[in-house]
Every structure is written in structure tokens, then in C-alpha cells.
Amino acid sequence: MKDPVEYTQSNRQRGWGTFMAAVRYSFPVFLGYMAIGIAFGLLLVDAGYPWWLAPIMGVLMYAGAGQYLAVGLFASGAGLAEAALLQFIINARHMAYGITLGRRINASGPFKFYLIYALTDETFALLSSLPEGGGPGETGSRPSFMFMVAALDHCYWVSGSIIGAVAGTLIPFNMEGISFALTALFIVLMIEQILRVRRPAPFVISALAAALASFLLPSRFSLLTALVFSLALVHLFAGGES
């Protein structure tokens, strides 16, 4: 029978090892989320809202692009139905994320519902790249590693938005071009994904679908249409790649 003290210490060491592995794995998102979180906080207070709305939105809403959109909708006086429809369209891509990671999330036990909630674009990019055997350098279980990655990403976003909102309240900033921060992060994560998985075909197909949808369709339909067509084309032409 194991000594209770040794068993407790072993669990703590394993948990600490898993946490540090999650910190290292999520570090690119830390750099990106701090930047775009600060940008969001600055834009929020520049639109005339109090700084404390940033952490509330970050904890309860937690949707980077959706939060940027919400600031514009608030400022323009958009109605509830219009805001709900636009948020649904811009966040519809998360349904594809859930389907892709469904098996892993269903097997995550007590972390399941938080992982569903916290599955942002960047967290999906990290979790979908995990090898089947477990996290990189992981000493604990896969569910705990996935949970720590998701929770760390959430903390990065909320922390960045608080810093930006407080700074925007205290110091005047020029907001020109700052909203491009979110797009820049998506580009960086896409490049890292291409380099990591070494399968450029899905990314090329998705980019072509997005470009065609942007040119041929109204903006309110282009995102969802591009998502549907890119998923279908990737499954058809790139699904059999090893």
C-alpha cells in the first residue's frame, strides 16, 4: 500500500508537471491573447463603456471576434434580434470545432462542459494538434492537460482585456488600426499549424473558399458559406492524406 504522503506529493508533482507543459504549449496564444485582449479593452473604453465591462464579457461571453463585434453593435444601437443573428453567424464556425474534437471532449470527464464553453479558435488550434498519446511533455492525463490549456487561454484573454481597459481609462490612445490585432493572430496561428502538421492542402482549400465567398457573396453570408464549403472540400480532397 502506498504511503499517503508520498502519494499526495506524487500527485502534486504530476499536476505541476502537467501545468508547466500546458504553459509552454499555450505560450504562443499568451502572446497573441495579451495583444488582442489589450486591443479589445482599449476599443471598449474608447467606445464609452466602463473598464469593468471587459472582464465581465471575457468571463461570461469569451468570444474574441464576437466581443469586438459586440462593441460595434452596442455603439450603433443595434437591436437584440440583429445582434443575436450576427453573433450566431460569426460564431457558427465553433460547431465545426465541436464536431472535430467531439470524441476527445466527450472523454474528458468533469472537464467536458468547460472545454465546450472555452473552445475558441486558438484553443481549438492547440487541442486539435495534440498527438493521440497525450500532450507534449505531459506528465498527467490528457483531460487535465486539455483543461489547463483551455483555462490558461481564457486567463490570458481576460487579463489582456483588463489591462487594455484600465490603460485606456487612464491614458489616451490612438485607436487607428488596432482592431487588426485579431486578424494578425489568426494568421500567425495558421502559419504555425501549417508548419506543425505539414499538410498545407486543408489551409489552401479553406483560403480559396474564403476568398471566393468574399468576392461572390454579400458579407453577411460569406463567412458561414466559406466555412461550409471549405469543410466539404477538405473532407473530399484532403481527407485521405496521411
Written account of the structure:
The chain is an all-alpha fold. The protein folds into two domains: 4-198, no CATH class; 199-242, no CATH class. It contains 13 helices and no strands. It has helices spanning 4-25, 27-46, 53-60, 64-76, 80-91, 93-100, 102-106, 112-117, 121-128, 142-170, 181-197, 201-216, 219-238. Helix 1 packs across helix 10 and helix 2 (27-46) packs parallel to helix 4. The N and C termini lie far apart (46 Å).
Q: How would you describe this structure in keywords?
A:
2 domains, globular
Mean pLDDT: 79
Number of domains: 2
Strand content: under 5%
What profile does the largest beta sheet have?
none
Report the end-to-end length measured between terminal Cα atoms.
46 Å
Radius of gyration: 20 Å
